[in-house]
Amino acid sequence: MSQYVCVRIPRMDDVDIGLFDYDRNNTLYFFILNADEQIYMRYGGRDASTDTYLHLSSLELALEQGLELHRRYLRGELPRQQRPQPLFPRQIPLLVERTLARNQCVECHLIGDYQNIHREREGTLDKLIHLYRSPDIQTLGIYLEVPLGLVVKEVRGAVQEAGMKPGDRITRWNGTPVWTFGDLQYYYDKVDRRAERIRVAVARGGEPVELEVALPPRWWWTDLGFRQSSVDPRVYFESRPLTAPEKRERGLQADGFASRVSSVDSVAAMLKSHELRAGDIICAVDGVERDEIAHTPELFIKLRKTAGQTVTLDLIRDGKRMQMPLRTLSMSFRK
Amino acid sequence: MQPRNFILPVLLACLPGLAQDAPEDRIYWLKDYREALREARQTQKPIFLEFRCEA
């Protein structure tokens, strides 16, 4: 560590968040960069758990790679990155109003949340990008040998079909060099949500191998449970899509999102959100039965409705058709 | 408030040269980014930057 200048930033007030862009729902995040503010790599990233991808060995590896990249930079061997447009917390009006003006700490996750509220008010919020951040690589079938950084431990699904193999080390993600899981997750997040394929390069036995991975439907979906996001309508139930025969039997649209409620959070009754029960079949939301993206009613609500809105569910309970109001709730993100 | 992550700070303390019982090897964390840039320029070292939410 003596080969690094180490700096710890606990407050975001004066940070150029345009340069230091990352998923703000990480409580710890690291950058390796140089005095010219050229970023070599990121270390961090998460899934529903905070520490799935954090490991002492992978951090040591990243630090070693950072030193090597720095030597290459000093020798003029690395292309110069274009600095992103600067953005400071004081340029986000809601953040100023609710934290800076009150002399409160600008917490990392508040930056992302206030940005999203602002986008929602402006009409520029794209939930696939701004709400479903940091897609899960396991959706593609990538399981990493975490202590070894980007070495693949197990492959399934889309990447297996594309030819990825255990032991491969991921080196580029859609054209961008990646050194750590933090890099990989960051650049995966930058993939156009409507993309159907991505390019992944791996090192296999020292040789480069290029793969083209077909992205599965809803590849961008991630667990939002840990995110304190005010633009996420909370619904407090989960459901599973009906099978084609189940839909046919009930006269429901074959390409609709009709689903059977599998679980209901007790919070729903406490907060008077709805009176759904496990086993109910939700056929439509506000009369809509299908969606080009959503395959379940809860995803439809999360994508198409705003937090705090009340919708009408068409459902089947014990074989009888009925309607039920559902009031979505907004997460309170302040302590 | 999100759950805090205590794992990595512990890991950082275990990195070679960071042992808490060896003060001469302990990591010296700057708290000022501009100062870190200056020091990195003077020493030609790279920067290890940590963002940590302590709220």
Please characterize this protein's 3D structure.
- The complex is a heterodimer of chains A (335) and B (55).
- Chain A has 335 residues and is of the alpha+beta class.
- Chain A contains nine helices and 14 strands.
- Chain A has helices at 56-74, 93-98, 108-122, 127-130, 157-162, 181-189, 244-249, 267-270, 297-304; strands spanning 5-9, 28-33, 39-43, 142-144, 152-155, 169-173, 176-177, 197-204, 207-214, 237-241, 259-264, 281-285, 310-317, 320-327.
- In chain A, the strands form four sheets. In chain A, strands 10-11-12-13-14 form a five-stranded antiparallel β-sheet. Chain A has a four-stranded antiparallel β-sheet with strand order 7-6-8-9. In chain A, strands 2-3 form a two-stranded antiparallel sheet.
- The model of chain A has no long low-confidence stretch (mean pLDDT 94).
- Chain B is α+β, with helices and mostly antiparallel strands and 55 residues long.
- Chain B has two helices and two strands.
- Chain B is globular, with a radius of gyration of 13 Å.
- In chain B, 16% of the residues are buried.
- The chains are: A alpha+beta (335), B alpha+beta (55).
- Chains A and B meet through strand 1, strand 2 and helix 1 of A and helix 1, strand 1, helix 2 and strand 2 of B.
- Strand 1 (5-9) of chain A pairs parallel with strand 2 (47-52) of chain B.
Concise description?
The complex is a heterodimer of chains A (335) and B (55). Chain A is α+β, with helices and mostly antiparallel strands and 335 residues long.
